Every structure is written in C-alpha cells, then in structure tokens.
Amino acid sequence: MNSRKKVAYRIFLFLCGLVMVVGTVLVACSAIEIAETDFSYLWAFGGAIATLFLLPLNALAHETGHLVFGALAGLRFSSLRVSRLRIFRVGKRFRMRFLHAREVAGSCEMYPGNAKGVRGKMIFYSLGGATFNLVYGLTFLTLFLLCESHPALYFFAIFAPLNLFEAAASLYPAETATGMTDGGLVAGLVRNRPSAVVSLRVLTAQGILSLGSFSDVGEELLFDTPVVREDDPAFLALLQLRYYYLFYYGREEEALAQLLRLETLFADLPEVNRADVACDLLYAYSALQPDELRAQSYLEAAAHAVGTCAYLRAMAAYVRMKGEEGDFLDRAKRAAQEEPIVGMAELERKFLERLER
C-alpha cells in the first residue's frame, strides 16, 4: 500500500476511533447516577473492562461471524483465535491452548470442503466478521436507547461502539501490518489482484485435497502463479503446499528447496502457523537431510503443535535419528488414519513410509 493510501487509512481510523471513544464514554457515563444506588452497574462496568483485556467481545463477534458465514458457505473449521485463546482441530477432536504472544486480536482459519466456487465462498466468508460486528453494534445501541436500563444491557452496550468501529476498520480496503483487511481481501478477489490469485490457488488446492489427493492437483496450480511479496501469507502457504506436492511425487531435492526457502521466512509466519512449519523442518532435518543441531532448534516451536499428525511424524523422525526408543511412530500412524483431509492423510502415510526405509 503506497504512502497516500496509508495516510488515508490512518485518517479514516482516527476519525472512526474518535467517534467510537465518544460513543463508548457516553454509554459508560449514562449509568453514573443509577450506580450511586445500584452497585450492579459498577460490577457491570468493571466486568466490561476485564472482558476487554481477557476476551474482547468485538473480536469474539468478528471471528464468530467468519465462522458462521464460513460454515454456511461449506467451509471446514481449522482454528479459531480470540486474544491469546486458540481452539483448533486435530483429526476429529478439538483442542484449546493459550498462545504466548498477542500478534492479532483474533483470527479464524477455515478451508474449502471441495474445489467448487472457492472465490464466491471466500468473499461470503470474508464479509461475515464485519456483518456480525454491525449486527452487534446496531442491536445493542438500539436496545440501549429504547429499552429500560438494566446492568446486563449496560454491559453489552458498552461494547457496541467498539463493534461498529471494528466493522468499519475491517471493511476498509487496506493492507495492515498483519495482512489485508477483510475489505481488502474482497476487493482483491473481485479484481483478481496477484495476492488474491495466489490465495485462491492455495484454497483451491486445499479444496481438492479435502476429498482427493495430490495426484488430483495440477502442477500448474501451485507453480504457475503471479509474483507476490515473499512475506505475503498466501505465498508462505503456497511454499508449504509446494513442499508437500513435490515430496508426494518423490522429488525430495526440489521439495527441500521449497522448504528451505520457507525456512528463511520462518520469522514472518504468524504464530498459529509457525508450529506446523517447525514440524516440517524438524522432520526434514531428522529424516531427509539429517542435521541434529538444526533439528533441535525447532523442537520448542514444534511442541506447540503437540498431538497433531505433523508433530508425531516429526518426533518419530527425530527419535529415530537419535537412535532412541519411543511410540511416536505408532501414534503417528494412528493419527494419520484419523486425519479428516483425505489428501493430507495420504501424504502423512508417505512421510511415514519414507521414514521406515
């Protein structure tokens, strides 16, 4: 995004933020006189402050919107993050953990259940977050203005201006430090911008793998792509898929080249994706290109994906390289059988077969 667009976006955020602050203050101060005799309003205000830091309702509403719209569009759940809390899927089970860093307020990761209509599904999914924020903000402001005062209504109304601000900020088409806004993603998909085209290629491949295998993914889909920035999240996902594709066909040297390129960009990966890539690197430095010191350097990062197919497979490779005993290989085989994505289950079996040679 050029400097002029950045300035315009910052001015937009400043003006919307100013309106949000004024609105929040007006709602919060509306109960001052009542609170002198009814202390439940003070508890409601204190609860709102605590919620803002622990589990902000604007982020929860936004990510829930993506989740609901994605489900309606036929997308499958991968992970949901609000503040430091992350809920993610491992096989057929759901797990929860707390992340160390708060890189973003929230995120929702879903993937297509098939390769049909991916562009339309992603546009619909992208608009879900802002839609829920708008519904939340307008609903509770209207109730607050028209209904009799109540501590519970007061609590939720305090977050109404913040939800409206979240909707406006996410719908504005811009590129931020954490990636494109939802409005930017929609604009890119509509206008076929390079980053959006790469995203569509990745999502289409994921849709194919949901029901098929890498043999159903044409090589041009992953390799004949527009040039985008190396730190673009779509490009990082593309590199990982290229590694998987090449490994699937036994082209190990080419696969390693893609993975090593991804390794140079490891610091640019979001925390929620870093663990999976660390597992791939741990496996590679244990089984494909043995290097004990480099393998050890990814143990801590890979541990954040504990219980997943990738982690069990990586640890099976690491334990074998060290000549130690463990049940990681058997657990990895069982996890591969439970993997719901057909193409990834087949790939995991190939990883394990390569390990047993």
In the sheet with the most strands, the strands line up as 3-2-1-4
Number of extended strands: 6
Q: In terms of per-residue confidence, which ranges show pLDDT below 50 for 5 or more consecutive residues?
A: none
Structural class: alpha+beta
Distance, first to last CA:
49 Å
Q: How many H/I helices?
A: 18
Percent of residues in beta strands: 5-15%
Radius of gyration: 23 Å
Mean pLDDT: 90
Order of helices and strands: HHHHEEEEHHHEEHHHHHHHHHHH
Shape: elongated
Largest sheet: 4 strands, antiparallel
Q: Count the domains.
A: 2
Work out the helicity level: 55-70%
Tell me what the structure shows.
With 357 residues, the protein is α+β, with helices and mostly antiparallel strands. 67% of the residues lie in helices and 9% in strands. It has 2 domains: 3-190, no CATH class; 192-355, Serine Threonine Protein Phosphatase 5, Tetratricopeptide repeat. The protein has helices at 3-29, 32-35, 40-54, 57-72, 118-146, 151-158, 160-171, 182-191, 194-211, 219-223, 233-248, 252-264, 271-288, 292-296, 299-302, 309-322, 328-338, 342-355; strands at 75-82, 85-90, 93-98, 106-112, 175-176, 179-180. The strands form 2 sheets. The chain has a 4-stranded antiparallel beta sheet. It is elongated. The mean pLDDT is 90.
In short:
Helices cover about 65% and strands about 10% of the residues. The protein is elongated and about 75 Å long. It has helices spanning about 5-30, 30-35, 40-55, 55-70, 120-145, 150-160, 160-170, 180-190, 195-210, 220-225, 235-250, 250-265, 270-290, 290-295, 300, 310-320, 330-340, 340-355, and strands at about 75-80, 85-90, 95-100, 105-110, 175, 180.
